[in-house]
Amino acid sequence: MDYFLQQALNALSLGGEYALLALGLAIVFSVMGLVNFAHGELITVGGYAMFLAVLIFGVKDPLLILPVGVLAAIFFAVLLERVAFRPVRAAPPTTGMLMAFGISIILQNSALIFVGTRPKAVPTAEWLMLDVNIGSLRMPVVQLLEAGVTIGAITLLVVFMRNTTIGIAMRAAAKDFSTVRLMGIRADRVVRTAFAISGLLAGLAAVFIMARRGAVDPFMGFTPVLKAFVAAVVGGFGSLPGAVIGGFALGIAEVTLQATLPSSVAGFRDAFIFSAIAVLLLFRPQGILGERPDFGEKT
Amino acid sequence: MTVKSSVLLGSAALGLLIALIGFSALLFAEPYHQRIVFIFMVNLIIVLGLQVFMGNCDITHFGHIGFMGIAAYAVAVLATPIAIKKTALATAPFGLSGIELPLFFAVPGAIAITLIVAFFVGLVMVRQTGVPATIATLAFLVVVHVVLLNWVDLTRGPRAFYGIPIKASLSTATAIAVVGVLIARMFRDSRWGVQLRASSEDAAAAAAVGVRMQRLRFAAWMLSALFLSVAGVLFALFVGTISPKSFYFELTFLTLAMLIIGGMHSVTGAVVGAIVVALGLEVTRFVENGPDIAGFELPQMFGLTGFYLGAVIVFGMAFRSEGIVGPQEIEEWWGSRQQGKQSDAGSSEAPNP
Amino acid sequence: MLEASHISVNYGPIKAVRDVSIDVGRGDVVALLGPNGAGKSSLLSSLVGLVPKNRGTVVFDNEEVSRASTEDLIRRGMSVTPEGRRIFGDLTVGENLRLGAAIRSDKDGIAEDTEKFLDLFPILRKRFNSAARYLSGGEQQMLAISRSLMSRPKLLMLDEPSLGLAPRIVDQIFEFLVTLRQWGLTLLIVEQNASEVLEIADRAYVLSTGSIVFSGTANELSNSGGVMELYLGLEGH
């Protein structure tokens, strides 16, 4: 039972990480149709910002480093929107996606050139690394926090999207952007808000990823975001609840396989999961909550 | 099957260019440079295969290198001499450590294996549209990489697979690249290709006139996989030593950049993009290694080639999203220029809205 | 209120609107008529900045706004009820109305206006918290018009308000437009369906293949059998 609860917490925290990232991808996609392949670099930027905060400003208190990571990711997401994605906003979706892809390669390699290939250590707050004992149960603080923060962030997001004008406008823009403009709501503001939220969610994920890894390297954003993309597709690409469900489903699947696969084939975990997803998509191409691809034009 | 003369004309022009590159390297270049030209030919075949799918279906494909990896490893496992396998691959499953096929069987075998995999992946692919389709191709690449890395008994895992017979030559690669241009052109301008491109532009309208988009897309997918499997076999049989990282993101980025920059909607674009990006790549490689230029020693800049590829894609998308060449083939350039003049003259007349 | 001069709109080689000038005075109800594909919607979209003008100037409320963005024009007091209603189907009726008032910050005023429209259209009150897509076509049109009025515009432009609706519903909508006229609102109504709109309009323009072929009072148009028959498919008086 203890073992089961511990694994459940594992699944919840890993799933939470995927859900945060998948939500960020889905928000940007639903509002402006951009497939943000540079989303992973928001994590990397958050990580390097934490590293630089220690190196240059001598921030010692690990508690102060955390907001630096989150703020850097938000700032960078908004910056990317302004300089890279606004010029291709009206272009076909492929153009924006490849643009994001190119940006991602540039950022990874800039980090290689200017910071170096080796991972850079970032100190983690000691209390994050502690375990909480509940009876015979040992729960790592980092995982409890990650699960809690994810659920908190998702709740806040739901409140935001339902109760603020800009949130409602973002939901409307997902279906019909030009009519949203006819309400006098500035397109730039809607898009910027979407990017800021995606940066915030990626920044939160970055903080926890950093806490677990203890170091930042140029390619650290790639794998989590690949998983997040897969989670978003499983949930139904562009659907926000779908992104959350897909994220948690993927987290649960990974932890379950990790716990049950014999070690000789454990390395194939991702191959198994992706193949299972392929079969799922064979029967339900639109994902869990997505709308059927109609092989036709959006109206 | 009849081939339009315009297709032959265009293919001949491009083929001539490729042959010229290949044979001048054969005649004049040193082995080191011949090697670069060989790799260029392999990359060109990859880009052509990518064009067959991406250019006609309008779906970004990140998984093509996965097929190349499968084919390269398949031919390696089938054709490597038993003597080498005894030390390098003693625990191979299915009794493969005791098998050594002549290339005559190993090459078609490797291609067939790749196509079988492509068949099953394709079943999933054609049901997806747009973004999920692209993510699916990316996931496929990761799956192939994970399997190559972890099936240690069959692939030696992350360690290099060595001892593959070195049988491919620059002239073979050049010849295949030339034939590849012709095939890619024939597909693009065939009834299927035209229907597929039309359906990518407007799926509803194409379906209304009876175009079976999924079937056509599947055909493009399989033909693309064929190109990639040939590239994989050629590559393995030329370098003799392969490892999983040869078939991962680096090559994916490079070949995607080539196609995008040339213009993914035309075969001419694929060829031009491959040439332009390859030239730039050699220059950045040179700078990356920190050469002495006029007495100054430049610092090593690891990551510069990657930076270059990213910059190429970003600038391409920002300023010329249709690529250098655009959607038109080489023989259409002249024709369209003529037409352009005519329609300019005609546009002063009132068109019907 | 609105003076648009020498407007041209091209889509690539297609000239959708050619050198069109229209003038809408304060408190006027102006009809913009013409067959399908005449360029009416293109003209409207260009006036509100959704499609770029190739030529021409627009003066709105005594200010030159030729290059202003859509968002700016709405904030200056234009409002549009788009063709096909374009309500936000996934959003509730209430959220639709709320977005209509997005440019305002006077909470009390917004609540007051919301009440006003809910009183006028009780069905909207009944469905206030359910997704707008479940409304009937006529109800959606009521919502769409109410939504565009939530910004308290000076000029309301309606694009084919009767399109695809049953005659009884169309009557209801035109009744509502008469009410708006009584409120003192300036209206520009784009219609294919000429007979109904001419009963409430002061003046009318007729557009054909992108150019104005008639302009005058609604009465003049009703009495010019040639124009009515040729462009609007109606018998003149």
TrEMBL record, chain A:
The keyword Zinc-finger does not apply. It is a multi-pass membrane protein. InterPro entries: ABC_transp_permease (IPR001851), BCAA_transport_permease (IPR052157). Its main location: membrane. The keyword Transmembrane applies. CDD domains: TM_PBP1_LivH_like. GO terms for cellular component: plasma membrane. It is found in: Cell membrane. The chain crosses the membrane at residues 18-35, 42-59, 65-85, 97-117, 137-161, 190-209, 229-253, 265-283. GO terms for molecular function: transmembrane transporter activity. Keywords: Amino-acid transport, Cell membrane, Membrane, Transmembrane, Transmembrane helix, Transport. One of its GO terms (biological process) is amino acid transport. Belongs to the binding-protein-dependent transport system permease family. LivHM subfamily. This is Branched-chain amino acid ABC transporter permease. It comes from Oceaniradius stylonematis.
TrEMBL record, chain B:
It comes from Oceaniradius stylonematis. This is Branched-chain amino acid ABC transporter permease. It is found in: Cell membrane. The chain crosses the membrane at residues 7-29, 35-53, 65-84, 104-126, 133-152, 164-187, 218-239, 251-281, 301-319. Keywords: Cell membrane, Membrane, Transmembrane, Transmembrane helix. GO terms for molecular function: branched-chain amino acid transmembrane transporter activity. GO terms for cellular component: plasma membrane. The keyword Cell membrane applies. InterPro entries: ABC_transp_permease, LivM-like. The keyword Phosphoprotein does not apply. Residues 336-353 have a biased composition (Polar residues). It is a multi-pass membrane protein. Pfam families: BPD_transp_2 (PF02653). Residues 334-353 are annotated as: Disordered.
UniProtKB/TrEMBL annotation, chain C:
InterPro entries: AAA+_ATPase, ABC_transporter-like_ATP-bd, ABC_transporter-like_CS, BCAA_Transport_ATP-bd_LivF, P-loop_NTPase. The keyword ATP-binding applies. GO terms for molecular function: ATP binding; ATP hydrolysis activity; branched-chain amino acid transmembrane transporter activity. Keywords: Amino-acid transport, ATP-binding, Nucleotide-binding, Transport. Signal peptide: none annotated. It comes from the Bacteria. Pfam families: ABC_tran. One of its GO terms (biological process) is L-amino acid transport. Residues 2-234 form the ABC transporter domain. SUPFAM superfamilies: P-loop containing nucleoside triphosphate hydrolases. Belongs to the ABC transporter superfamily. This is ABC transporter ATP-binding protein.
